[in-house]
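Let's practice the habit of predicting before peeking. Look at the sequence and jot down your guess about where helices and strands might fall. Then scroll down.
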Amino acid sequence: MKRFVAGCAALVVAGVCMPARAGVERPPQFIIMAFDNCTELERWKEFSDFSAEMNKAGDRVHFTFFVSGTNFVANERRQIYQGPRQQRGYSSINFGGPADDVRQRIAYINDMRKRGHEIASHAVGHFDGRAWSKAEWSQEFHAYNEIFSNIAKINDLPSGFDFPASEVVGFRAPYLAKSPGLYTALQDNRFRYDTSGDSHADEWPAKKDGIWRFNLVGLTVHGTRRATLSMDYNFLIAQSMGFSNSRHHAQFREQMLQTYLDYFKANYSGNRAPLHIGHHFTSYQGGVYNQALKAFARKVCDLPEVRCATYVKLADFMDGLDAATLKAYAAGDFSRASAPMLTTADAFKGEPLEISSRETVAAKSVKRANRSQ
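Done guessing? Here is the structure:
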């Protein structure tokens, strides 16, 4: 990487920058926004439309979708799947619905991938694999690949995916539940990265056992002392103990946006560690969390030196770094940029609040407060 000469490289958006340090060229600020499970067709349409609007004037934002294999299997074909230690035809989440729902999901996935978004794996049956062996993880990965590759035949559809299962190179474990056998299974199955861990917000990724670890991070909820993981389900626990509370939806939405902006500004003006944000297609808190995510993307994804990219693009970037450069990045040994001035005024213009009854999160327990869905 090219080294800076003496002096300070100015950042257009801020007008100033922090004193130069004797290190490498300042890295871009990667921001990765990813979704788990990805069942609901309404959410596929929502984020397809949103990304298309964002990218009208150029590539501003791309998402990673960790799709569960059950989304590729129509309800009536569920018997083709058997998860580790499970009865045949059983999953802890819903299967794909009618065959026509699977067909529409295929169309969204093919289109989104063509537009630069990434499809990654969330396993098949959404089981807790913390006690699984390497062989059991490999069984689940094999099932995913078989379902993915034969989706048209399984569901009696005219066509399937227009890219091979071998291009699915990223993984996030359901519940972030992992075992030692996971990582050898990931290696054997040619995965490039895993996102099932957690770390500090300013921690740069590390490669272990040949797999990049792109971890979710611990955040402090804006205006409080409460800690949460950088995922919407964990905000639900931190803000309202796992209940949807329509009386506070506006507050929760604003609080999430402010928390993400705090995270962004600290890293942008700090050591530029990538941002990791995880959401679900589930409309937690009446959908306001996904409104906050979209507002965040509108605020930051067009700023200089920012890349709102997929995990596979981050893996490409990381693979191009030598050890000395990565060490310098982690230490912040480069000319720092000042954090841009960002406000939340009009952030939710045109985004109505959904008024819903107080309800529990299905099949979730407050005991899982520190874990992802």
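How did you do? The chain has a mean pLDDT of 90.
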